[in-house]
Amino acid sequence: MAEHRYLGKNQPRLAARDIVTGRARYAADEKIAGMLWAKVLRSPYAYAKIIDIDTSKAEALPGVKAIITYKNAPHWKAGMIIPHKHLLSDTVYFIGDAVALIAAETEAIADEARDLIKVEYEELDPILSIEDSMKEDAPQLYPEIPGNVADYEPFANQGMALTQEKVGDIEAGFAEADVIHEVTTVLENAQNPLPPESPGIIAEWNGEDYVTVRGSMSSNGLCRMMNSGCMNLPISKMRVIASYVGGSYGSKHFSSNGLIIHYAAALSKATGKPVGLFYDREEHLTCQTTRMNSIGKYKIGMKKDGTITAIQGEWTGEAGAFNGEHYMIIAVGLISQGVLAQSKNVDISTKIVLTNRQTSGAFRGYGYLENAIHISNALYQTLEKIDLDPVEYFRRNRLKVGDEFYHAYMCSGMVKAAGPDALEMINKGAEKFRWDERWKGFGVPTYEDENVVRAVGVGFCGQSDVGEQLANENVNLTFDGGVTVSCVATEFGPGTRDVMRKIAAEALNVDLSMVRVTDSDSMAAPYEWGSTGSRSTYAMGTAVLKACEDAKRQLFERVAQIFHCPPEALETKDGMVSIIGHPEATVPWIAAIGFNGSITGVGNFGGEYNVLVQQVQFIEMELDKKTGKVTVLEQLCSTDCGQIVNPDALKGQLDGYFPGIDMAIREGMIWDKDGRIVNPNMIDYKTRTWNEIPKHENIILESAADGNYVGTKPPYGAFGAGEPSLAPGIPALTLAIYNATGKWFTTYPITPKEILDALREKEGR
Amino acid sequence: MRTEQKEYIILNVNGIDRKFTVGEDRTDVQPSETLAETLRNRLDLTAAKVSCDKGACGCCTVIVDGEATLSCSTLTVECDGKHVLTLEGLEDPVTGELDPIQQAFIDHTAFQCGYCTPGVIMTVKALLMKNPHPTENELKEALAGNYCRCGSHHQVIETVMDMTREEA
Ligand code: FES
Ligand code: FES
Fold it and tell me: Between chains, do B114 and A246 touch, taking CB under 8 Å as contact?
């Protein structure tokens, strides 16, 4: 195992002191001279036409600087693939849709002006469910999207079958099966990512149609790519400067619903002043994005040994009020088939529909969480029929190195798994959790008395996008021995900026304190997506490593001329270069770089889609037989990250598992019959509190360090492990609840009342 | 021009007396103004965050006369004559020395995005001021009102329990 100077060892996070002292400035802490405050007047109806809108009283209010309605709004459109959602229009598409934008000198004036705008609506019949969206007589929400079903032909034409998977002969596969079973799962939680910080944006439009956007944006380049076009600007005319981001979990990529940016920018354009728009918690919970709802019908054919002879699926996702990146959510989600249920015969078709509800979007587990639930529910019920322990199933059916699996997103074809092999994480996890001892068979609790019943469950998931997309980073060596990494990585929680810093310190063998990472400012670093899809460590880290190697090559070429030796004979440490084995032949960097000089190394990476980040979770829970309440007693995450970079930061990423289990039993938006969210606050939207945190453990393996890693090598073998921490929790808890109650649940969240009913039914049997 | 004698309040914030007039003018502290607004907007003490604005997340926690207090749900006028301690006040302004809780959070990376952290640290501080060696359950109980989405709970609990044990 390679010894590293920094990797795998704890150092304080770059942001640590700022965070614990309160110096870290998040969007709403930023101060810009001359900034106006924005507010948005929002629709009280799920679907309506604006008959009349009167802004005269609001405009007359002293301190009001601009009011924009559909009558004077710029002709900007959001939505993909064909843009269809106007910045403002005479039609509103969900409760909370924007009707008017206000900019004023103070927040209070903006608030008051909003209340002075009079709007007359004509209510229309809204679409409030996936099923209703596809009905023949359903209203047609956008002319660009006939039948309310998103069209992905433009991508198919580019050879990307993003939303479909067809391999082998499905009928022949089912004919070979010993058992065939079909399950439909409905995910309608619309779980909110619920970062503690609501989105906040400050936009500054200057006269030459160039916009600078500051605030809570977690993925710099992705945000520019997805939003500049919506404002009729080329990417190069949108500058993004990210503040500290108070949690994102995908929701602040603004990868499809970047309306907050467009609103602030439109008001800045109208007023010629910087404009700050900070959502309050209710706006955040009703107007930003939720997890995508979906219905998944999966049919599995299985042999007695657990081999899946065929898997057929229909998976329909809900975009909500307009369609954005959902095709990517679906495309990434299809990977769950390969990870959970590999088979030679596959036929999965998917659809994305529009409704008059809040839009959905990116949220940790991006599609593969949703599809892992759909597939696991079908899988576990099928396994029960052949009475095969699911852990044993995962051991047998895991993707082994070299196995082919379908990768819809980016590749649209079969990809060979590069590893790591999940066997060890499954075995180590099972051993630590004492699974073999605690698993009593399907439908059998581990313990029961007159008050409680306990049971265990397991869940598994994975994806292979950790190396996704092009990465570009620069590294600058200064004559004093300092290193600047130009990189748009954002400070949003996982410590990705620290990863870049440590990779550079490791590669250039310098003291960590000499390495700095530029702010996440698109003017300070080369264009690239930034932190999204768990790609930071692998994709960005590879580009940083290559940039360091490029810089080192230049440095050594210069020193080689001083010592008249080949560059390969040189090594560097702490700003000095020596001939290997000859410490007497040592010069400082300045000797090669020159006073006042610097060397810039350039690193690029083209993207890889064959390295798997996978996680298995084990859970024991207890049901209160009188109340139906589920208490998670014990939870264990087991994963493999290739090589640990920041041990404590990585641990934190796995410790954040609980929104997964809570999607199964607690969290969700609740709508009334008119399409209004009735729990858009943190009292009624229930999350886990500190005194409900279960006993928890992580197993983090390092396959790269052990040398059994095959395939394209990520930087030092490190590819991260954080994102999948939510996904396995839902199937694990579904299984445990089945073992305790004898009922397979297929809708979420599973409520105490439903559990009590199931227990009664079981007792009656 | 008429000069009027305005009502005023004095808050001691991080050891410094701050005087505010009370009234309806923009420069006055309005009777409806929350402590969070005063700290963030008038004193530029932005460590305390307003997240839920409903008393349900603890991100805005500061210490008022020794008690952990939700500044989003406390009126500034109610704090007249009181001592307010914010996260900024834990750092020694001269030496830069940190409170042991802050140092322990750095040393053990007991945070992720850090947005909940000011509230978490102030809640822990208020607890330790009264109870320097809490049990794990007492700690969890004290933090029950602090929302953290990243999942820093385990690391915070380990860090604080280690720290208070070491001191024992
Ligand atoms: S902002 Fe004060 S408790 Fe949430
Ligand atoms: S550290 Fe991000 S919410 Fe607690």
Answer: yes
